[in-house]
Write a structure and sequence with these properties.
mainly alpha; Endonuclease III, domain 1; 0% strand
């Protein structure tokens, strides 16, 4: 894919979703980290329903470690994998208290060492909480990047991230991350992408295939 095609994609999704942003509700870096940890294999909408009450009850790392694990599990039981996530939260909070004075570290290499915090979560935290350019590859970003040819069909999540970082100007990384998520969540969905009205159909490998199959079906039915 050449630079002109990349620019075309960035401009199109920018026009479609100019106000794309992190939809996880939070008021500080600590709350954002907890929310992103909870969001693994779970929708942002479900996480927000849980954290409305969770963030009222727990304000600091000390609050999370002061309750029995079973109590924290009950507080997040609507979240998928709530038992393992509760353990990760308490272990993470202990480390924050013992090593970082209760604060979330702003360095990516320190974040990924925390329990329950992978590369994607760390990228979300550093970019949204600390203003460090980053591209977090979630299921939407991965799907859209591969469909549009920004990455290869068989690329790993890390390979997708590296290709996006190489092709997208660094100052646009964070905003593009949000726009790709919105594009995948609300337009280029996994099951029913809106190919017929997509402004990026001309550069979309998946869209062209789907439209061609659709036309073949119509021709057979005619």
């Amino acid at each position: 894919m050449n630079a002109a095609d990349v620019r075309h994609i960035l401009d199109c999704i920018g026009e479609m979703f100019p106000d794309a942003h992190c939809e996880l509700l939070h008021s500080n870096a600590f709350e954002l980290t907890i929310a992103v940890l909870l969001s693994a294999q779970c929708t942002d909408a479900t996480v927000n329903k849980v954290t409305v009450d969770l963030f009222q009850k727990y304000k600091t790392p000390e609050d999370y470690v002061s309750v029995p694990l079973e109590e924290l599990e009950q507080d997040i039981r609507r979240i998928g994998l709530f038992r393992s996530k509760a353990k990760h939260i308490q272990k993470m909070c202990m480390i924050l208290i013992e090593e970082y004075g209760g604060d979330i570290p702003s360095e990516h290499d320190k974040l990924v060492l925390l329990p329950g915090i992978g590369r994607k979560t760390a990228n979300v935290v550093v970019s949204n909480a600390f203003g460090v350019p980053a591209i977090a590859v979630d299921t939407h970003v991965e799907r859209v990047s591969k469909r549009l040819g920004l990455a290869g069909w068989n690329d790993t999540v890390l390979e997708v991230e590296k290709k996006l970082m190489k092709r997208i100007p660094k100052e646009e990384w964070t905003l593009t991350h949000h726009r790709l998520i919105f594009f995948g969540r609300y337009h280029c969905k996994a099951q029913n992408p809106q190919c017929q009205i997509c402004p990026l159909l001309d550069v979309c490998r998946e869209g062209k295939k789907r439209m061609k199959r659709s036309q073949v079906r119509k021709d057979r039915e005619a």
